Amino acid sequence: xxxxxxxxxxxxxxxxxxxxxxxxxxxxxxxxxxxxxxxxxxxxxxxxxxxxxxxxxxxxxxxxxxxxxxxxxxxxxxxxxxxxxxxxxxxxxxxxxxxxxxxxxxxxxxxxxxxxxxxxxxxxx
Length: 125
What we know:
Blueprint: H1 3-16, H2 19-42, H3 47-72, H4 78-89, H5 102-121
């Protein structure tokens, strides 16, 4: 699939379910944090390390905040639910929320989302 086809497909999916936008934003924030942490890891203590570490902390906070949004977001399509499940299943520990009970919130939200999707697909009586 070409990058243009992928872009069109992604835009179409995002039009139907905003969970795709949230997943993509999480990917971006993960990449930004990963780069910042890699820079910090290469520096010795001192002013450069302190500046790089401050950037790492800021990016980690943004990632953690968005991870909390992501796991509380309800997909509105089956494709979105599948994408979210697969995406979260592949995350590394540092990409997940700090709350140890995040999985409970995530699973209840998914169950509710599936209920909503199923109700929307039922024919009106």
